[in-house]
């Protein structure tokens, strides 16, 4: 009940914006909720995924959804705070080609988390970051090593697609 799953409409729009299929690589689903975006990316060709959420029930749901989809062996699921999880992933020298970043709307820290990913060397060159947020809030179109490629609004939800180019 505490999650705000990405609607099917928004999910389809996201994948039409970033491309319907992938040729491998790793995806990070931070603030995973139900895991819907990361699981969709796995089903469309990503090799592996890391799911992170602080809520215990969300973690249970992600694990159940991965098992149901037959994708559990290609995923790692962690119950952790987002900032701490990024530090742990950096120590493991993990890198990602695709990141789904959907923090609770009240946090407004998507750009700070993206900058932390840059500093911690978690992103491959030209990685794609999908940031979902409340449409009444505005993130910068360009900051640090990130450039917004596309932005779309769906009612109270906005989605920005950023390219990482160090």
UniProtKB/TrEMBL annotation:
Keyword Transferase listed: yes
InterPro entries with a match to the protein in the record: DNA_methylase_N6_adenine_CS, RNA_MeTrfase_RsmD, SAM-dependent_MTases_sf
Name of one Pfam family that matches: Cons_hypoth95
Top-level taxon in the UniProt lineage: Bacteria
Gene Ontology molecular function: any one: methyltransferase activity
Organism: Paenibacillus aceti
UniProt entry tagged with the keyword Cell wall biogenesis/degradation: no
GO annotation terms (biological process): methylation
Protein name: Methyltransferase
SUPFAM superfamilies: S-adenosyl-L-methionine-dependent methyltransferases (SSF53335)
């Amino acid at each position: 009940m505490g999650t705000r799953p990405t609607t099917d409409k928004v999910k389809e729009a996201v994948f039409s914006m970033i491309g319907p299929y992938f040729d491998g690589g790793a995806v990070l689903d931070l603030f995973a909720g139900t895991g819907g975006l990361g699981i969709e990316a796995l089903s469309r060709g990503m090799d592996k995924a890391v799911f992170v959420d602080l809520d215990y029930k969300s973690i249970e749901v992600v694990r159940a959804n991965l098992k149901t989809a037959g994708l559990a062996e290609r995923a790692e699921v962690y119950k952790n705070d987002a900032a701490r999880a990024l530090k742990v992933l950096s120590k493991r020298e993990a890198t990602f080609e695709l990141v789904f970043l959907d923090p609770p709307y009240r946090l407004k820290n998507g750009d700070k988390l993206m900058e932390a990913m840059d500093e911690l060397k978690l992103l491959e060159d030209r990685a794609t970051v999908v940031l979902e947020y409340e449409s009444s809030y505005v993130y910068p179109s360009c900051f640090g090593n990130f450039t917004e490629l596309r932005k779309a609004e769906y009612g109270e939800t906005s989605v920005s697609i950023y390219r990482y180019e160090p």
